[in-house]
Specification:
The chain has helices at 39-46, 94-97, 133-136, 146-152, 155-166, 181-192, 205-213, 224-231, 247-253, 278-283, 295-307, 326-334; strands at 2-8, 11-16, 28-37, 61-69, 81-84, 87-88, 108-109, 127-130, 137-139, 173-177, 197-201, 217-219, 237-242, 257-265, 287-290, 319-321, 341-343. The protein has two domains: 2-154 and 294-343, Alpha-Beta Complex (Quinone Oxidoreductase, Chain A, domain 1); 159-290, 3-Layer(aba) Sandwich (Rossmann fold). Helix 10 links the parallel strand 14 (257-265) and strand 15. It is an alpha/beta fold and 347 residues long. Helix 5 packs across helix 6 and helix 5 (155-166) crosses helix 11 (295-307). The protein has twelve helices and 17 strands. The strands form four sheets. Strands 3, 4, 5, 8, 9, 16 and 17 form a seven-stranded mixed beta sheet that branches. It has a six-stranded parallel beta sheet with strand order 12-11-10-13-14-15, with helices on both faces. Keywords: Metal-binding, Oxidoreductase, Zinc. Residues 8-343 form the Enoyl reductase (ER) domain. Its cofactor is Zn(2+).
Length: 347
């Protein structure tokens, strides 16, 4: 079968690879009808995560049709159209029972090697194996497009998880650092959750314009502090969501947040350490938290928002391709010439 594989730092290729097979009674095989390219995939191909090896199939966002199920899979049948979380979870352990699926000891993150758990081939392929299918997969409902389901599996779940973790109250002011896909969806999530205003902080004018067109205020990093002060009468914003995944962006959050405010980071971090402003955080009673999207837990709530029309995440998708265009599309994403791309293996 065809798939997009990691070749080494900075390089991918479309290759023929052996198709997956059922390896456990709880597995399922999905014929991929749409896959996404995520900012985390850019970290993967850059070599930021040590757990990925050359030849590995990448990608972790997909929807498709079940072509085979293991004997222990009870919630689905061959032929069902399904969406998926970007990682797997057993659904039975203590972590899963309390909704902390990312902390499941059997977690595997599609297409990232051993960087975040057990190794598992990715979804930018014609067929993908899904462990713990009853937990990892969800049935495609009416009123949810394939594109929306792709985003629900990771980017939208991540943006919503940031808002959820922040404890946002209606009317509070939010700043989102980073105007990529996750940042824009965090902004839309905050708006849907009742934020009084959202400021997207982003160096790209094109992405700032996108944020403004979709209900946010926007500022360059140099303008952000002044705008946040103006909107909040000098106090600073109630919540800052860091959606970049770097030390400088996380440090910048402390210049925007009010005293006793909250900072939530959902960017994918690869660095082991970061100089934490301890005395300032103590004096200002700041809260710093981290969140990872969990579409297994959030799927019912987000599907309700999507199918009722309260939230349309698909506005961030600006390119649809076949496999052959993947190398150029990855380059365009890295250069920020596009925001979000999806792959149709049938093209």
């Amino acid at each position: 079968m065809r798939a997009i594989v990691y070749q080494g730092p900075g390089a991918i290729a479309v290759r023929d690879v052996p198709p997956p097979r059922l390896e456990d009674p709880r597995d399922a095989l999905v014929r991929v009808e749409l896959a996404g390219i995520c900012g985390t995939d850019l970290h993967v191909i850059a070599g930021d995560f040590a757990g990925i090896q050359p030849g590995a199939v990448i990608g972790h966002e997909f929807v498709g049709v079940l072509t085979a199920i293991g004997s222990a899979v009870t919630g689905f049948a061959v032929g069902d159209r399904v969406m998926a979380s970007d990682f797997t979870a057993c659904g039975r352990c203590r972590c899963c029972e309390r909704g902390d699926h990312w902390e499941c000891p059997e977690r595997a993150f599609f297409g990232t090697g051993t960087s975040f758990g057990l190794p598992l081939a990715g979804a930018q392929a014609e067929i993908v194996r899904v462990p713990h299918a009853d937990t990892t997969l969800g049935r495609m409902p009416k009123g949810c497009s394939d594109e929306a389901a792709i985003l629900l599996g990771d980017n939208l779940a991540t943006g919503w998880a940031a808002v959820e973790r922040s404890g946002l109250l209606p009317g509070e002011i939010v700043a989102v650092i980073g105007g990529g896909t996750v940042g824009q969806l965090a902004s839309l999530s905050a708006q849907a959750a009742g934020a009084g205003a959202v400021i997207v902080v982003e160096p790209s004018e094109g992405r700032r314009e996108f944020a403004r067109a979709n209900g946010s205020l926007a500022a360059s990093p140099q303008e952000a502090r002044e705008l946040a002060s103006r909107v909040t009468d000098g106090e600073g914003v109630d919540v800052v969501i860091e959606a970049v995944g770097g030390a400088s962006a996380l440090t910048a959050a402390f210049d925007l947040v009010r005293k006793r405010g909250r900072i939530i980071s959902v960017g994918a971090h690869a660095a082991e350490t970061w100089p934490f402003p301890l005395a300032r955080s103590f004096a200002n009673e700041l809260t710093l938290g981290f969140a990872i999207g969990d579409s297994i837990r959030l799927r019912p709530r987000l599907l309700s928002l999507i199918t009722t029309g309260a939230l349309d995440p698909t506005v961030v998708i600006d390119r649809k391709i076949g496999f052959a265009a993947a190398p150029q599309t990855y380059a365009d994403l890295k250069a920020q010439r596009i925001m979000k791309a999806v792959i149709d293996p049938r093209l």
